[in-house]
Amino acid sequence: MSHLHLPRVACETIAPFALGLCAIALSVTSAASDESIPFRFEDLRAYVPVTVGTQSGEFVLDTGANEVMIDTVTANDLGMRATSVHEERGAGRGSLPTGDGGGVSLSVGSVPLKVDSAGVAPINRVLRPYNGLDIKGVIGAPFFMEHVVEIDFATRKLVLHDPASFAYHGSGVRLPFQFVDGDPVVQGQLVLGDGARLPLRLLIDLGAKADLLVAAPFVKDHQLLIRMGPTVIEPLGAGVGGETRYAFARLAGLKVGNDLAGADLIAGLSVNGTLRGGDYDALLGAGFLQRYRVFVDYPHQTMILEPREPMPATSFDRSGAFLVASGEKLDNIVVHEVVAGSPADEAGVRSGDVIEAVDGRDVRDLRIWDTRKALSAPGERIVTLTLRRNGRSLSVPVRLKDLI
Predict the structure, then answer these.
(1) pLDDT per residue over 1-28, tens digit each?
(2) What does pTM read for this prediction?
(3) Selection from 248, 249, 230, 246 nearest residue 238 by Cα
(4) CA 260 to centroid of chain Cα atoms
(5) How far apart are CA 328 and CA 73, in angstroms?
(6) Dist CA 241 CA 236 (whole Å)
(7) Coiled-coil ranges per the record (predicted)?
(8) Domains in the chain, ordered, with CATH?
(9) Phi and psi (nearest 5°) for 102?
(10) Could you give the CA distance from residue 164 to residue 147 in angstroms, rounded to a whole number?
């Protein structure tokens, strides 16, 4: 998941691009029993409805997690007792207490899933300020191992196909992958502005909230902070070990499999102890995947991509104000950090300011992703923020502009 590194887990929009393919018609041989599950997709993160015992709620759907994880509060409510608790290191600089909750039966939508060993960790506490909603867990590899999972971002539906009868006849891009320490890894190349092509191992990570997130060892080995400038450093979210930070930069290009993507991608280069790497060099994230109808076929170690028509309009923050949510209802939107020299900084927005309204609309009628979208809007635009600071209300116009 984006920035959430569970045990043996690699986890975290921008101008549209294509793999140089024409529009194609979906052509799949499907069984009559194929199941359809709705999902929520907000702020480049997918959530599915899950029921575990008496508990129902949303779980993050994540190809970058190689197990099912139950949040500690939910596990306690279910009477699950975690054993072998240890401090797990992940994307952040710190660690997170993680244990083995044993076997559990649950349902994703109406589809049953039996897990021999579920992890238990306080993941909601870590993620809720950044997600702006409460989750009860993460659905990872065990779910994908049982189905060919078709992810239709346009309709926000999953279609589960039987691996034994699934047959694809379309002209989508087929990307074979290998499992490396339980994670799906495809080969690619990072194309730099100086013409260099750097081979890299891409972990297919639906939970990564970006086009591409590059691990710290690869960034250091290839001096990417120098070769890919200019950059802007911002948080993106949090994971095991706390908040994660990246230096964001535009890519000259990215090759995935045998097909070259266009030039308008944005990569996050790991800084400040984020994403220390392992058996991969970068995460191929939801910002990339959402441009396609995606077939994730773990049983046959293949991913198939069909370009969406039209490609979704995506964006990157154009304000320089990074927001988090707090409060029981997560409707208290706080400016967590302001990039020096950014539009928000020039307008006088400060860390700790509470946003009360966006262009006159009360934030209690919005979610954090709505506010982020407003601050990422393209074109010449001024967004007026009503802020509360030290008991005073301030009206601050922020003139948006591209940061990178």
Answers:
(1) 544 444 444 344 333 333 333 333 345 6
(2) 0.91
(3) 246
(4) 22
(5) 15
(6) 14
(7) none
(8) 1-316 (2.40.70.10), 321-399 (2.30.42.10)
(9) 80, -165
(10) 9
